[in-house]
Design a protein that fits this description.
This protein is of the alpha/beta class and 671 residues long. The protein contains ten helices and 53 strands. Strand 52 and strand 53 form a beta hairpin. The chain is rod-shaped.
Length: 671
C-alpha cells in the first residue's frame, strides 16, 4: 500500500489556497496581514492596497510565496527608492518562495537580511549589481536558469550552502566582504572571474560539474576548497590568495589552471587528484605548498613555479611522464612515486629525496638561469624576488636514503650534505656536470704554516658526522643537524660500501681521477673499522702512511727521498770501505814452478772520523749505489758488510716507494 506523504506545514501563517484534499496544505505562501491570503492570492484590490502602503527600505515577508515575473516587478516597484531609482529593501524574507518566471533583482539594495533559503528560481535569476548590506541567505536554493550575481556586493555573510545551480552561475566582479559560504553547492558552469573575497571563502565539498572560472579572483581570507570536485576545467589563473588556499582532497577531472596565481600564505593541495593537466606555470608561493599524497595522472609539466619556502611532494604519485620546474628553498619527496620518466629542473632548492620510488629514468638538474615565462613577453623570465637573500642558484640534495639509484641521473648538484647510506644500486648512479661533495676540514688561521693534516678529497656528509662524534675530532668536521635524521649509528662499516659504490659509478663513467677520492674514502673507513682484523688494519695504516693508499704521489715521493737520503748517508758513513782494493802480485819460486796468485782482501770498515767520511768522492760513489738500488740494479761497488745489507734493504724498499709514486700519478691522469 502506497504511503501517504506527510502534510507540509510551514511554521508561519500561510495562505492555504488551492487545498484539494487532506494530503496537502495547499499554498504555503506567507499571508499578508491582515489578510489570510499570500501576495499571489490576494485580490487585485487588496494587493494594490498592500503594495501602495510599502515604502523603500521596508521589511517584507513573503516566505513560501509563488512569484510570477509580473508580481515580483510590482513588489519591487513599490519598494523603489526615488533617490537611486532602484529598489531598496529592509529584511527580505523569501524562504521557500518560488519564482516561476525570470526574477529580476538587478541593482536592488538589501539593507537588512536577505533570506532566500530553499527558494526555487525556475527562470533566470538576475542579481547584477545588487547590494546585500547584511546577511544573504541562499542555502538550498535551486537556480534552474542562469544565476546572475555579476558585480553584486555582499557586505555581510553570503550563504549558498547546498545551493544548486543548474544553469550558469555568474559571479563576475562580485565582492564578498564577509564570509562566502558555498559548501556542498552544485554548479554547472561557475564564473567567479575577478571576484573579490575579503572574508573566508568556503567551497568545501562543492561540486562543479562544468567549468569553474576563478581567473583573477582575489581571496583575502581563507579559500577553502577541501574535497571540492571539478568535473570540467578549473581556471584560477592570475588569482591572488592572501590567506590560506586549501584544496585538500579536491578532485580536478579536467585541466587545473593556476598559471600566474599568487599564493601569499599556505597552499594545501594534499591528497588532491589531478586527472588532467596541472598548470602552475609562473605561479608564486610565499609560504609552503603541500602536494603530499596528491595524484597526477597526466601532468605533463608542473611549473615552472616559485616557492619562497618548501614544496612538499611526499607520497605524491605521478602516473605519466612529467617535468617539474621548481624554484624553492626546499623540496621534500619522501616516498614520492614516479610511474614513468621524470625530469626535475630545480633552482635554489634543498631536496630531500629519501625513499622516493621510481622505475624509469629520473634526472635532477640544477638550472643555472631563471625559468623563462612562455606566457610573458619574449625573453621574459619568472621573477625570483623571494630569493634575494640566497647566494647562487645551487641545488642541494640532503638525502637519498632508501632510493633505488639504478635510474637516477644528477647534474650539477651539490651533494655536500647528502646522506647516501641505505641507497640501493648506488654504483649505477650517474653524476654529470659539476656535482660537488664535502671536503675535509681546512687549516685554521694559526695552523697555516704547519703541514696539512688532511689531504683534500671528496667526502660524504656521513663521514663528517661520524668523525665529529669522535673524542679526538679536530675542528672542521661538520656535525649532523637536528633535521638530518638518525646518523648516530652510521660508522666506518656502513660507509665503506657507500664509498665503494660511488667509486664504481665514477669508474664505469670512465672518470678514474675522481674515482680515486672515493677509493681513498673506502680505505679510510676500512682502516678505522675496528671490526676488521688487526693485521689488516696495520697493513692499511702502513699503506696510508707511505703513499695515501697509492693515491698521494707527494707522500710516496717524500718517503722515497727520505729513504734515498738515509741510504746515501749510511753508505758514506759505513757502507763504503776505507780504501779501494788494488791488485797485488805475490811470487814464490819453488824448484822450477812459479806461482803468481792475486788475492782480494776483505773491504775494511772506515776508521776515520765521521765528518771526514762525508767527502765528495764518497758521495759520488754512494749516490751511484742508491740510484741503482731504486731501479733494482747492482752498482758493482765494493761495500762493507753494513753497506751490503743497506743496499739490500734499499733495493727492496725504494723501488716500492717509486712504484707507489708512479701509481698515484697514473691514478690522477688516467683517462
Amino acid at each position: 500500500m502506497a504511503s501517504i506523504p506527510a502534510l507540509v506545514v510551514p511554521d508561519w501563517p500561510f495562505c492555504g489556497d488551492g487545498v484539494t484534499g487532506g494530503d496537502r496544505a495547499g499554498c504555503t505562501g506567507r499571508s499578508v496581514d491582515p489578510h489570510p491570503s499570500c501576495l499571489a492570492h490576494l485580490s487585485s484590490v487588496d494587493r494594490d492596497t498592500h503594495l501602495a502602503s510599502l515604502n523603500a527600505g521596508d521589511d517584507i515577508d513573503h516566505r513560501g510565496t509563488s512569484f510570477t515575473g509580473q508580481l515580483l516587478e510590482q513588489l519591487l516597484n513599490a519598494l523603489n527608492d526615488p533617490t537611486t531609482d532602484h529598489p531598496r529593501l529592509g529584511d527580505a524574507l523569501f524562504e521557500s518562495a518560488t519564482f516561476t518566471d525570470n526574477a529580476n533583482f538587478e541593482s536592488t539594495t538589501f539593507t537588512g537580511d536577505a533570506r532566500f533559503h530553499k527558494a526555487t528560481f525556475v527562470g533566470h535569476a538576475w542579481f547584477e549589481s545588487a547590494n546585500f548590506d547584511r546577511e544573504a541567505q541562499f542555502e538550498s536554493v535551486t537556480f534552474t536558469g542562469t544565476a546572475g550575481f555579476e558585480s553584486a556586493t555582499f557586505t555581510g555573510t553570503a550563504r549558498f550552502h547546498s545551493a544548486t545551480f543548474t544553469g550558469e552561475a555568474w559571479f563576475l566582479f562580485a565582492a564578498f566582504t564577509g564570509t562566502a559560504g558555498f559548501e556542498s553547492a552544485t554548479f554547472t558552469d561557475a564564473m567567479f572571474r575577478a571576484a573579490a573575497f575579503t572574508g573566508d571563502a568556503w567551497f568545501h565539498q562543492t561540486a562543479f560539474t562544468g567549468d569553474a572560472r576563478f581567473a583573477a579572483a582575489t581571496f583575502t581570507g581563507t579559500a577553502q576548497f577541501r574535497s571540492a570536485t571539478f568535473t570540467g576545467d578549473a581556471s584560477f589563473g592570475s588569482a591572488t590568495f592572501t590567506g590560506d588556499a586549501r584544496f585538500r582532497s579536491a578532485t580536478f577531472a579536467g585541466a587545473a589552471g593556476f598559471e600566474s596565481a599568487a599564493f601569499n600564505a599556505i597552499a594545501d593541495f594534499r591528497s588532491a587528484g589531478f586527472n588532467g593537466i596541472a598548470d602552475f606555470q609562473a605561479a608564486g608561493f610565499t609560504e609552503d605548498v603541500d602536494f603530499g599524497a596528491a595524484v597526477f595522472e597526466r601532468a605533463g609539466e608542473l611549473g615552472p613555479l616559485v616557492c619562497g619556502k618548501r614544496v612538499f611532494l611526499s607520497e605524491a604519485r605521478f602516473s605519466g611522464p612529467v617535468t617539474l620546474s621548481i624554484a624553492a628553498r626546499g623540496l621534500e619527496c619522501h616516498r614520492t612515486r614516479w610511474a614513468s620518466t621524470a625530469t626535475l629542473r630545480l633552482r635554489h632548492t634543498d631536496v630531500d629525496f629519501a625513499h622516493a620510488d621510481f622505475e624509469y629514468p629520473l634526472s635532477i638538474a640544477a638550472e643555472q638561469a631563471p625559468f623563462p615565462n612562455s606566457r610573458g613577453t619574449r625573453g621574459a623570465v619568472i621573477p625570483e624576488d623571494r630569493f634575494t637573500d640566497t647566494a647562487g642558484s645551487g641545488v642541494r640534495i640532503t638525502s637519498l636514503r632508501g632510493v633505488d639509484a639504478a635510474h637516477l641521473v644528477l647534474a650539477d648538484i651539490d651533494l655536500t650534505r647528502c646522506l647516501f647510506t641505505r641507497t640501493v644500486h648506488l654504483d649505477q648512479i650517474r653524476l654529470e656536470g659539476n656535482c660537488t661533495f664535502a671536503g675535509v676540514p681546512a687549516r685554521t688561521q694559526w695552523r697555516r704554516l704547519l703541514p696539512r693534516r688532511f689531504t683534500q678529497r671528496r667526502t660524504l656528509a656521513e663521514e663528517h658526522h661520524w668523525r665529529s662524534r669522535q673524542p679526538t675530532a679536530v675542528p672542521g668536521w661538520q656535525q649532523a643537524s637536528p633535521d638530518t635524521g638518525h646518523t648516530e649509528h652510521v660508522g666506518p662499516a656502513q660507509l665503506a660500501p657507500v664509498y665503494r659504490a660511488l667509486r664504481k659509478a665514477f669508474e664505469d663513467s670512465k672518470n678514474e681521477p675522481d674515482a680515486a677520492d672515493f677509493y681513498y674514502g673506502e680505505m679510510e673507513m676500512r682502516r678505522h673499522d675496528r671490526d676488521r682484523p688487526r693485521a689488516e688494519r696495520a697493513l692499511l695504516v702502513a699503506y696510508w702512511a707511505l703513499s695515501g693508499y697509492g693515491l698521494r704521489a707527494t707522500r710516496a715521493a717524500v718517503w722515497l727521498l727520505l729513504a734515498m737520503t738515509g741510504t746515501l748517508l749510511a753508505m758514506m758513513l759505513w757502507g763504503l770501505p776505507a780504501d779501494n782494493w788494488r791488485p797485488e802480485t805475490v811470487g814464490s819460486v819453488t824448484g822450477l814452478q812459479v806461482r803468481l796468485p792475486t788475492q782480494k782482501p776483505d773491504p775494511a770498515n772506515p776508521t776515520n772520523a765521521l765528518h771526514e767520511r762525508l767527502s765528495t768522492k764518497r758521495f759520488e760513489k754512494s749516490l751511484r749505489v742508491v740510484v741503482n738500488s731504486v731501479i733494482f740494479r747492482s752498482s758493482d761497488q765494493d761495500l762493507t758488510t753494513a753497506g751490503t745489507y743497506t743496499e739490500m734493504a734499499s733495493r727492496l724498499t725504494e723501488p716500492v716507494l717509486l712504484g707507489l709514486a708512479a701509481l698515484a700519478i697514473r691514478g690522477r691522469i688516467k683517462r
